[in-house]
Amino acid sequence: MTAGPGMSSAGDAPVLLSGLGAIAHRYAGFIVDVWGVLHDGVRAYDPARDALRRLRAAGAPVCLISNAPRSAAAVAARLVALGIGADCYDHLLTSGQATIDALSDAQEPELAALGRRYYFMGPADTRSLLDGLGYSAVVDPSRATFILNTGSEPGTDLAHYETALRTCARRALPMICANPDLFVRIGAQQVMCAGAIARRYAALGGSVRYYGKPHPAIYRHALALMACAPGAVLALGDGLETDIAGARTLGIDAGLVLGGLNADCLGRRGGEEPARDRLQARFDRSGHRPDYIIPYLRW
């Protein structure tokens, strides 16, 4: 990949930033992750909210992309409840909405062949994702024609789903994954997401179709909404295998926000100098490296 405005190539060490103010002028638009960057599921981050408002005041469009397995309207309402209003962004895309849009149309042969009965795997508050689209949930995998995977139920781990996944794999049921994230932090707790379940299903030989980051379609949608070329955009997120991987695949510069999934890479006692050896190990393990690292999203 050719180095863009971030002046970093795949072999360079990421540039450490204290805030966005130093580089914001280099970009015409911004793609921003939601959970772990703007809030932790419990509270919004005031500096992040301020940074978004400053970007928009400078004339740069901001597109939020969330891997939440919920409609865009539901995520927008949740953001308002946390104090993140429409004045903080221009566009909002979610993996859940991408799933809804794809299955409501279902003109692709692969989607048309799914059938209309799905075995649901996920928390109760996402069970209604496909309501009104002509699909029905079944409790017995033997009666299903595909799997809808929105994530893990509270208090469960991957072993909880093993029997059902093996049953579905034997029947060669295709899986729709409405949240490619592996994990998310809710407050101080790390919770397994749909992507971890989908990864296990693929390891069992199952077929998985993903909606959301890091897959290109949602980024292309964001670029079209912002009317920006990939090289003129900076993407910010806390996930190496989603936010960073997805952005760099399309030639979009990427900044890793450490305060979310990688909060343990920040210094102790509130220090913000990252533990570079630990970060490097994660870059090596994931195969993805950002152009920038920033402790938290702020100006």
Mean pLDDT: 92
- The stretches of 5 or more residues where confidence is low (pLDDT under 50) are 1-10
What percent of residues adopt helix (DSSP H or I)? Answer: 25-40%
Number of helices: 9
The SSE order reads EEHEHEHHEEEHEEEHEHEHEHE
Strand order of the largest sheet: 1-14-13-12-2-3-4
Outline the structure in words.
- This protein is an alpha/beta fold and 299 residues long.
- It contains nine helices and 14 strands.
- Strands 1-14-13-12-2-3-4 form a seven-stranded parallel beta sheet, with helices on both faces.
- Helix 1 links the parallel strand 2 (29-33) and strand 3.
Brief sketch in words of this structure:
The protein is α/β, with parallel strands linked by helices.
SSE inventory with pairings:
Layout: E1 15-16, E2 29-33, H1 46-57, E3 62-66, H2 72-82, E4 91-94, H3 95-105, H4 109-112, E5 117-121, E6 136-138, E7 146-149, H5 162-170, E8 175-177, E9 183-186, E10 189-192, H6 194-203, E11 208-210, H7 216-226, E12 233-237, H8 240-249, E13 253-257, H9 276-286, E14 292-294
Parallel strand pairs: 1-14, 2-3, 2-12, 3-4, 5-6, 5-7, 7-8, 8-11, 12-13, 13-14
Antiparallel strand pairs: 9-10
Characteristic key phrases:
299 residues; alpha/beta; seven-stranded parallel sheet; globular
